[in-house]
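Sequence, please.
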């Protein structure tokens, strides 16, 4: 059962990348449109701060599942998430009814950077932090066979 969990956690960031690509290939109101245009735009623009942070977090969880979360790999997956955010912005520039701006790319970068900072300040520097303890418990749970 834990082996299946490891496989799912390993696949999760890549499945999420596919989901991002598919969603970016459609107009921004293809799935959900709020009745108020201002609210619709605000929520969808705010999601840039979260979307690629989630991708980075999924990579961190996958690394934890394999007991491989080290600073170098953590930094690498943060760069991958940021690069994928930039790639997605370029992709959106070719999709009708989508926009691609440097502001959106900056929001993607900020989302990943904030989570990266949190992981570094807790997991790597503060072993007594609640988040560190939870991450270590999760890592130990998944590693047990």
């Amino acid at each position: 059962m834990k082996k299946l969990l490891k496989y799912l956690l390993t696949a999760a960031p890549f499945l999420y990348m596919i989901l991002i690509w598919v969603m970016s290939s459609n107009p921004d109101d293809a799935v959900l449109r709020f009745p108020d245009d201002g609210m619709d735009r605000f929520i969808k623009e705010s999601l840039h701060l979260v979307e690629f942070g989630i991708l980075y977090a999924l990579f961190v969880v996958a690394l934890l599942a394999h007991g491989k979360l080290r600073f170098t790999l953590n930094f690498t997956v943060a760069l991958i998430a940021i690069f994928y955010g930039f790639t997605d912005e370029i992709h959106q520039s070719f999709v009708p009814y989508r926009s691609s701006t440097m502001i959106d790319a900056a929001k993607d970068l900020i989302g990943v950077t904030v989570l990266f900072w949190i992981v570094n300040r807790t997991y790597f520097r503060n072993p007594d932090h609640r988040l560190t303890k939870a991450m270590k418990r999760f890592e130990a749970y998944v590693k047990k066979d």
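The two ends are 9 Å apart (CA to CA).
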